[in-house]
Amino acid sequence: MGLNNLEKVVAQNLKELKVEGRLKGKEYIITRIIPAQGNKGPRYLLKGKGEKEFLRMNSNSYLGMSLKEEVIQEEEKATREFGVGPGAVRFISGTFEVHRKLEKRLAEFHHREDAMLFSSAYTTVVGILTPLISNETIVISDELNHNCIINALRLARPKDKKIYTHLNMSELEERIKESINQARRLIIVTDGIFSMRGDFAPLNTISTLAQEYDHHFSENIILIVDDSHGIGAFGKTGRGTEEYTKAKGVDILIGTLGKALGVNGGYVTSKQNVITYLRETAPLYIYSNPISPAEASAALKALQILSSEKGLDILNHLRQMTKRFEQGLTSMGYDIITSDHPIVPLMIRDTQKTSELVNYLIENGILATGLNYPVVPRGDEEIRFQINADHTPYDIDYALQVLGDYRKKF
User: Fold this and answer.
1) Are 102 and 265 in contact (CB under 8 A)?
2) CA distances from 164 to 153, 175, 223, 329 (A)
């Protein structure tokens, strides 16, 4: 007994990760948030960095909801009324009225019949794919789908799994044709927004292909979309990639409360019978506590704001700041992937140079995320910037100034 031998193995594994440039290293720890003041958005203090203020450009809170006073007040109010946790899983008296209110409101927001909450979007994906994939199911997946989809398919063990080149619709159609007469059920699964690049799946084309070939499969072609980075931050009213592409035919839509809505948790929305079936069969729903009643209340408030005129103003400001940043980078000659989504990838295409620029940004009070292989393919090494609605023109211009100075020096 003991860990002596295991310690040697994991120490060697860590050493290899470091040599390969894949070691994430120590996490920066936020110790305090300084609220927006004057022409500056919020600033962050980090453990070990004293009183140095940081501009955070790697947050998923695209709409700034996590710091909005009315959202905070709603969570505080619900905490005092219902406590800090649900105390049980959903089917053992862990369902509070606000959980169902939120599920019904999410279904309404997405024009669907019902929704169900999970503890995160990751557990939503893993939780629903397993019961939906039978031994007579073939799954077709975009090569750059998120890690949660990759691991869900490993666990679900479909009859066959086919991969198509990123966003290659001709190849997707070929994979569909290859599957005819090979299975009763075909599932096409894709991200809505691809989180490493900020580009989006052409859901209108994918759903059209699914409908065209559906009659070849006795249990249908089912289109499942994880739009965690899209919902709330993309589309005219924040309804995500489905709205942006005007797609008709997304059968099962997965979203998160932990990004644009600024709270915590994930969800799936679809037809009533599908959601009822998943409540009975998805193990990560059945055997895991839900988000707290307070988190659900805060999410309801965030959704209410998003659905109002104020929400449209927030989205408009977010788009303006995104374009301001993109245009500034391209004018300096930086290589980026442009999109209407607030993820702005600055393509470095070299692991060492990516790390060097990330360190330079930190030295100058900017938090951004460097992404190296295998998180992204070799040659696609990048720094992922994420614009938030609580960024100001001053913030964007400061970041551009720092990046401009770096380009001149190096």
Assistant:
1) no
2) 15, 7, 15, 31
* Residue 195 appears among annotated catalytic residues: yes
Contact 383, 348 (CB under 8 A): yes
| Active-site residue, 66 included | no
Q: Check residue 376 and give its pLDDT.
A: 81
**Residue predicted with more confidence, 190 or 196:** 190
List CB contacts of 179: < 8 A, sequence separation 6 or more. Answer: 138, 140, 160, 162, 186, 217
The stretch 30-58 carries a mean pLDDT of 97
Residues across the chain: 410
Provide CB contacts within 8 A for 146, sequence distance 6+: 125, 191, 194, 195, 226, 228
Among the options 146, 229, 301, 341, which is catalytic?
Answer: 229
Amino acid letter, residue 164: Y
What's the alpha-carbon Rg for the chain, to the nearest Å? 22
Report, as an integer, the average pLDDT of 206-230. 98
Query: What pTM was estimated for this model as a whole?
Result: 0.95
Residues 362-371 pLDDT 10s? 999 999 999 8
In the structure encoding, which two tokens stand for residue 215, read together? 């009659």
**What is the set of domains in the chain, with CATH numbers?**
20-67+309-409 (3.90.1150.10), 69-306 (3.40.640.10)
Q: Which of 259, 317, 341, 391 is catalytic?
A: 259
Average pLDDT, the chain: 96
* CA pair distance 164, 169, nearest whole angstrom: 8
Please identify which of the residues 195, 270, 292, 297 carries the catalytic annotation.
Answer: 195
Question: What per-residue confidence (pLDDT) applies to 1?
Answer: 63
pLDDT of residue 378: 84
Query: For residues 130 and 282, is the Cβ–Cβ distance under 8 A?
Result: yes
Note if 26 is an active site residue: no
